[in-house]
Design goal:
220 residues, alpha+beta, 6-stranded antiparallel beta barrel, 36% helix
């Protein structure tokens, strides 16, 4: 596999993982009642629209007051969100600019304040944040287009120099995890272990460290 095919495979895997998590998050919201969404911290409802102003970049910023007992654990500064009306199903997407006490400021792309905000019964949903995936995908696409750079040198070198006797397969790991351990302990200049939460990345790294220790290799 050449470096272009390698980065293409990585990009496609990231896209698949991003789309899966986005769909799972959307299903979570769609299949929950409003009360359940509020309790799980993915929705603020109801919220009171209280004010607006313009940012230094001339972006429209809407200010809302939320109930103090709503923790909104899935929300975060610079996180994506969707402002919605439970009256007429209108909505607009935005990005949380600031959250302090029970006041939340949201930047929206609209040039004017949506009229339906005045009707009340407004809520805010947290949207699955794909920015990390998007940055990684963009990085893979950039590397696919160039033949220069230290990263290309890393991936163009074949991982060799791993005698079978040096590798102790971990019975507690699956095939892909053991393959990752073997790659880490090979002569590859760099190895990236990537995967969604709960796929055993930490357990894989612990097994790799054990193998490196048996080989007398140095590690941090």
């Amino acid at each position: 596999m050449n470096y272009t095919d390698h980065f293409t495979a990585l990009r496609n895997a990231l896209i698949k993982e991003r789309d899966f998590e986005t769909k799972a998050y959307q299903t979570l919201i769609q299949n929950r009642s409003m009360k359940e969404r509020v309790e799980e911290g993915v929705t603020w409802y109801p919220v009171d629209y209280s004010d607006y102003h313009y940012s230094r970049l001339n972006e429209l910023v809407l200010v809302f007051r939320i109930n103090e007992d709503q923790n909104g654990k899935m929300f975060g500064t610079s996180g994506k969100c969707s402002i919605f009306s439970s009256v007429n199903n209108e909505k607009t997407d935005g990005i949380i600019l600031q959250q302090k006490d029970n006041v939340v400021s949201v930047v929206i792309d609209d040039e004017e304040i949506p009229e339906w905000l005045k009707e009340g019964k407004i809520g805010i949903d947290a949207i699955c944040d794909t920015r990390t995936y998007d940055l990684q995908i963009k990085a893979m696409e950039d590397l696919m287009e160039t033949k220069r750079g230290i990263a290309i040198d890393f991936y163009s070198k074949k991982a060799e120099g791993y005698p079978p006797d040096d590798f102790h397969e971990d019975q507690d790991l699956n095939n892909s995890q053991n393959a990752a351990v073997k790659e880490i302990c090979s002569t590859a200049p760099i190895t990236i272990v990537h995967g969604p939460p709960g796929t055993g990345k930490t357990k894989t790294l612990v097994s790799a460290i054990r193998n490196l220790y048996r080989q007398g290799k140095k590690f941090l």
